[in-house]
Amino acid sequence: MKAVLVLKDGTVIRGRGIGAPRVAVGEVVFTTSMVGYTESLTDPSYAGQILVFTYPLIGNYGVPPYELSDKYGLPLHFESRSIKVEGVVVHEPCFKPSHWASSRSLPEWLKQEGVPGVWGVDTRWLAAKLREEGVTTGVLAVYEEDGDLDLASLLEKVRKANYDEVNFVERVSVKKPVFYGEGGRSLVAVLDCGVKYGILRSLLAKGFDVVLLPYNAPAEKVDELAPAGVVISNGPGNPELLNNLVETVKALIEYRYPLLGICLGHQVLSLALGAFTYKLRYGHRGSNKPCIDLKTGRCFVTSQNHGYAVDANSLKGSGVELWFINADDKTVEGIIDLDRKILGVQFHPEASPGPNDTAWVFDFFARALR
Q1: Which of 17, 10, 19 is nearest to 154 (CA)?
Q2: Share above pLDDT 90 across residues of the chain, in percent, rounded to a whole number
Q3: CB within 8 A of 323, min separation 6: which ones?
Q4: How far apart are the two ends of the chain, measured CA to CA in Å?
Q5: Average pLDDT for residues 19-37, to the nearest whole number?
Q6: Active site annotation includes 299
Q7: Among 53, 156, 194, 222, which is most exposed with the fewest C-beta within 10 angstroms?
Q8: Residue 347 confidence (pLDDT)
């Protein structure tokens, strides 16, 4: 198959096609992670986006079956039970992977789940373009070798798209409560904006039962469950579109529930405290992002996937302190208020790329709950 990626500025990038022969529109973003492609592609935070892998060879250890699960019944090597990205861009995919747990190749997996991909692309050049000019919308079309392609219609399609105005959380949040755990343990409620399974695993491993709630569940419904604490999860899209969730979090703050916001959840928590958010030029996506704990001076390697950030100046008067900042661009990476037991981190403590770098954040939250 052939494939073409058309960017909003008219740039046309041609390559070979993998996955499903179809057209997908999304915000074109890049990740610097060398491994973890099964986790990245199933991360609900990537909903609405076309993901570019800067590492040149992707798929060399294949794709395991979803049935390979942990003791909680969650798939071991995935962050959800389906691919969430709109499309995939790689320099070279591996067609014959080698790993004992592999049941299919990356191209086969993309095809099975109806996701288009393009390879044979200079992904490092594309990443440099996105760094210089900022993330942009794009359309990815995969078509048969002898198929027709109308570039003008593709360009028209991409210029009509606006990632920032779509509520992608609605697509990836559960529609009704889902319970995980053994029963009889302290309960943590998770407001699901597109939660990663790693977050659920981390909470369950700390001895809590977990109930996953729709992102638009009102505070009264949360309060009826009388949880020990509440987590506002990661997720895709613009946090300023989630007005109902912001109001819910405001109420939970008044109810004095211990709160932990992760990634998008951290942004929503900050909005509920009266702060503002803004869009980053090209976001932070990768597993080697350095963050500094302002209380200890220690620097942690973190895993990140976000395109928006909290305005540091707007946190003044909110009652919370800056907890972490990004060592590279000094953006807000965490907030804390020990008196009200409010914690927010922009990075993903459940991902632990080192492998345990910031997993202690869940221990910190567990102590606050107990």
Answers
A1: 10
A2: 96
A3: 293, 294, 295, 333, 334, 335, 336, 343, 344, 345
A4: 56
A5: 96
A6: no
A7: 156
A8: 97
Same domain, 83 and 195: no
With beta carbons less than 8 A apart as the criterion, state whether 33 and 286 touch.
yes
Q: Which residue out of 27, 39, 170, 350 is catalytically annotated?
A: 350
Could you list the beta-strand ranges (E) of 8-64.
Answer: 12-19, 23-31, 49-53, 57-58
Residue 350 a catalytic site member: yes
* Residue in 86, 263, 291, 333 annotated catalytic: 263
CA quadruple 272, 261, 130, 302: dihedral sign? positive
Q: Which of 114, 144, 165 finishes a domain?
A: 165
- pLDDT tens string 105-146: 999 999 999 999 999 999 999 999 999 999 999 999 999 988
Last residue of a domain, one of 165, 199, 215: 165
Tokens of 214: 């729709």
Q: How many Cα atoms sit within 13 Å of 159 on the Cβ side?
A: 9
What is the arithmetic mean of pLDDT over 197-216?
97
- What is the pTM (predicted TM-score) of this model? 0.96
Model pLDDT for residues 230-254, shown as the tens digit of each residue: 999 999 999 999 999 999 999 999 9
CA torsion sign, 328 to 298 to 270 to 80? positive
Number of CB atoms found within 10 A of residue 93's CB? 24
3-state DSSP assignment of residue 339: coil
β pairing state of 87-89 and 116-119? parallel
Closest by CA to 324, choosing from 349, 351, 299, 305, is 299
Q: Give me the mean pLDDT over the 74-93 stretch.
A: 97
Active-site annotation holder among 266, 284, 306, 348? 348
For residue 133, give its domain range.
2-165
pLDDT at residue 352 greater than cutoff 90: no
Say if residue 82 is in the same domain as residue 121. Answer: yes
Residue 291 appears among annotated catalytic residues: no
